[in-house]
Design brief:
Helix content: 40-55%
Pfam family, one: TctC
Order of helices and strands: HEHEHEHEEHEHEHEHEEHHEH
Family: Belongs to the UPF0065 (bug) family.
Organism: Microbacterium barkeri
Largest sheet: 6 strands, mixed
Number of helices: 11
Low-confidence stretches: 1-36, 42-47
CATH class of the largest domain: Alpha Beta
Mean pLDDT: 87
Number of domains: 2
Protein name: Tricarboxylic transport membrane protein
Length: 340
């Protein structure tokens, strides 16, 4: 289950009302933090020498997936002398859109990198945020992470077909959970692939992977979608049973059949990217891209890929622009299917 910041609302009210309530709550709770952090970002990253100082902004609390990317980049840049002074700033709230909004006003300041990815793009759509990825300068997609479909070890569902059959029979009676908005998108994609109306599905949003696992183990939920790195220990220990990996192709080293192999065409991945403020010169954008690519080549970053069970996927330049447009359309369609 994804550990990135999530604000998917609980059941009991209309999707629109629930979303608005949670967004307002998240915004109020993080307003003071965002204001304070904005000052530290602008002061720490003053100047344009990319190798002198850099602030990497994680749009979530410490310990999550975006935070892990930020801190691994920091370590790689420090250890190899790529940047003299690198700091990580956590700016949680509203699925990452609080941080996105703050970075969007740092126009022309290339010494800032915002970590984001599928979840951040999804949040801009889900909450119709004032700031979008059009208000920053996407630099590179770096890695992607795969979700898995899991059930408790004592679940009666031995295969994905078993689970889907019961789900089809009564969608509301088989509650799902997940640790973030991305996980709900994956569940929605699976529902559509299985011919199930996502609006009829019971989805219980959990606050992170640990809470989602507890919801499975205590019977609150019967199935879950979540990040493979977050679930691997529970699968290995025998507490959870993995029914499918959400990936286009089988992944070397992961002995879990893909949903596609089992006849369900869903392959949304949790990719991670970095973006910079807007209004950069072509020279600044090129230098920043080169710096990120240098970071990805370091032994420290390659070690992080192995530890986090990431899959390297590097996309930059014009290809990145097309990729983000395609993903935005795909995610918007999923939210429409969810009735949001």
């Amino acid at each position: 289950m994804s550990t990135d910041d999530s604000v998917t609302p609980p059941r009991g009210r209309s999707p629109v009302a629930r979303t608005v309530t949670r967004v307002i709550g998240a915004s109020l709770a993080t307003a003071a933090i965002a204001t304070a952090v904005y000052g530290s970002v602008t002061s720490a990253a003053a100047g344009t020498d990319l190798h002198a100082s850099m602030t990497i902004i994680a749009p979530a609390a410490p310990g999550g997936g975006w935070d892990g990317v930020a801190r691994e980049m920091q370590q790689a840049q420090r250890a190899n002398g790529l940047v003299n002074n690198v700091q990580v700033v956590n700016m949680p709230g509203a699925g990452g859109t609080i941080a996105l909004g703050n970075v969007s006003v740092l126009a022309g300041q290339p010494n800032n990198l915002l970590v984001g990815g599928t979840g951040l793009l999804a949040a801009t759509i889900q909450f119709d945020s004032a700031a979008t990825l059009d208000d920053v300068t996407p630099i590179a997609v770096m890695v992607e992470e795969y979700d898995v479909v899991v059930v408790p070890a004592d679940s009666p569902y031995e295969t994905l077909d078993d689970l889907v059959s019961a789900w089809r029979e009564d969608p509301r009676a088989l509650p799902w959970t997940g640790g973030g908005s991305f996980d709900q998108l994956v569940a929605t994609g699976l529902a559509l692939a299985a011919g199930i109306d996502p609006v009829e599905t019971t989805y219980i949003s959990s606050d992170g992977g640990g809470e989602a696992i507890q919801a499975l183990l205590n019977g609150t939920a019967q199935a879950a979608t979540g990040g493979y790195p977050d679930n691997i220990d529970q699968i290995a220990s025998g507490r959870l049973r993995a029914l499918a990996l959400i990936a286009e192709q089988p992944v070397e080293g992961i002995e879990i059949p893909t949903a596609a192999e089992q006849g369900y065409d869903v392959a949304l991945t949790n990719w991670r990217m970095v973006a910079a403020p807007s209004a950069l010169s072509e020279t600044e954008r090129t230098e920043l891209t080169d710096l990120v690519l240098e970071t990805l080549e370091t032994p420290e970053w390659q070690d992080a890929i192995e530890r986090y069970h990431w899959t390297e996927r590097v996309i930059t330049g014009d290809e990145l622009t097309g990729f983000l447009e395609s993903e935005r359309a795909r995610i918007a369609d999923l939210y429409e299917e969810m009735g949001q």
